[in-house]
Design goal:
This protein is an alpha/beta fold and 218 residues long. It has one domain: Leucine-rich repeat, LRR (right-handed beta-alpha superhelix). It has eight helices and eight strands; from the N terminus they run ααββαβαβαβαβαβαβ. Strands 1-2-3-4-5-6-7-8 form an eight-stranded mixed sheet, with helices on one face. Helix 4 packs parallel to helix 5, helix 5 packs parallel to helix 6 and helix 6 runs parallel beside helix 7. The longest helix is centred in the first third of the chain and has 19 residues. The protein is globular and about 40 Å long. The N and C termini lie far apart (40 Å).
Length: 218
């Protein structure tokens, strides 16, 4: 019942958001902030610029189980979305695979899955996905990504289009870190954490080359 109600909400809010989405402000675009839509728009929509972004994070939505995300990922209501935020839900490998395999997320430009318990296997599933080719921003911070996940991200179809990537908490091997840095040809912000081992960080910086200024340590 919870999933049915969620999908019904998505169907209503998608149309409403497309109709009343405000014009982007320069400040909002510069800060890449999530902005609430007009007060009469129902549902969990957040509008950034002129695009419908959907916030189903743990801050705004009761806990989603992996099975809920499987149903959500299979919903055609997501086809018009250009951003999806599921931060804070325990999605695990099941949720990650559902998102990676979805036929309805091809227009997504922003995907926020921070602190979702993805682990190395979940991160690897997202890296292997061939359904996320429009992504420009990907937040995987706080998911304990390991060597396999980072290697998969380095070879992802969309990696060269990423402008923002958060892998804070990842622990890649040096060679995987170097490959990822080299593959991020459009990167402007790459977030890592201060505990990343020195050898892996040096390899990441070497891979980035003249794009090393994009590195942000948190």
């Amino acid at each position: 019942m919870r999933l049915i109600a969620l999908l019904l909400t998505l169907g209503c809010s998608a149309t409403a958001a497309d109709q009343v989405a405000p014009a982007p402000s320069v400040e909002a675009e510069e800060t890449r902030a999530w902005t609430a839509p007009a007060a009469d728009v129902g549902g969990p929509d957040l509008v950034r610029g002129d695009a419908p972004f959907l916030d189903l994070s743990a801050e705004t939505t009761p806990q989603l189980r992996p099975a809920d995300v499987e149903g959500l990922a299979g919903s055609a209501h997501l086809e018009s979305r250009r951003g999806l935020r599921l931060s804070g839900h325990p999605l695990g490998i099941v949720g990650a695979k559902a998102i990676a395999a979805s036929h309805h997320l091809g227009r997504l430009e922003v995907l926020e899955l921070d602190t979702c318990g993805l682990g190395d296997s979940g991160g690897r599933a997202l890296g292997y996905s061939h359904r996320l080719g429009s992504l420009h921003e990907l937040d995987l911070g706080g998911n304990a990504l390991g060597a396999y996940a980072v290697e998969a991200l380095a070879g992802a179809d969309y990696v060269g289009n990423l402008v923002i990537l958060d892998i804070a908490g990842a622990r890649p091997e040096p060679e995987g870190a170097r490959k990822l840095g080299a593959a991020l040809t459009a990167i402007q912000t790459l977030r890592i954490d201060a505990e990343l081992p020195a050898e892996a960080r040096a390899a990441l910086e070497a891979g980035l080359g003249d794009r090393v200024g994009a590195l942000v340590v948190e």
